[in-house]
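Researcher: Quick test of sequence recovery. Tokens follow.
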């Protein structure tokens, strides 16, 4: 009889083991499915972000370009009217207004003119020549030969200047 009980216990244990094995296998498949879905979602998000990043890079200058279009229009009008017999003061005034518009558009987009008064700064200015002057101190800027510009904190073009040497 004890052998019969042992057989029944063995059968029950093997049935329980089979049930546990089936549960473990089902749990494994469920976790594998969740992992595959999460991985696919991650890959899709990665691809979407890469595409958005590329679009942002491609269209970075769109705002700036839109601000330049009215300036192009104004210059084209000035050229069209310059051929007519007219007062040159009006042409000068139109070009001056166009220049002001351009400078303001540059400033709104972080492009600023480098100041060229005061002491010479080798990081912002490039000395092209030296000239004596009684009006400014030695090492200070006498004249600006070409304006320089910075974009935010980065130098685009140094100002070409003449520096006082006594």
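Model:
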């Amino acid at each position: 009889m004890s052998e019969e009980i042992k057989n029944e216990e063995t059968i029950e244990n093997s049935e329980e083991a089979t049930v546990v094995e089936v549960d473990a296998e089902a749990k494994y498949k469920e976790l594998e499915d969740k992992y595959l879905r999460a991985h696919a979602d991650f890959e899709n998000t990665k691809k979407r972000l890469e595409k958005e990043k590329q679009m942002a890079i491609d269209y970075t200058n769109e705002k700036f370009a839109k601000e330049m279009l009215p300036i192009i229009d104004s210059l084209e009008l000035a050229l069209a009217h310059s051929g007519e017999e007219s007062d040159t003061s009006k042409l000068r005034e139109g070009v001056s207004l166009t220049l002001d518009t351009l400078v303001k558009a540059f400033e709104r987009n972080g492009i600023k003119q480098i100041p060229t008064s005061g002491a010479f700064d080798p990081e912002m200015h490039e000395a092209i020549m030296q000239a004596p002057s009684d009006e400014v101190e030695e090492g200070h800027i006498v004249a600006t030969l070409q304006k320089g510009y910075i974009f935010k904190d980065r130098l685009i073009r140094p100002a070409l200047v003449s520096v006082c040497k006594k």
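The chain has a mean pLDDT of 85.
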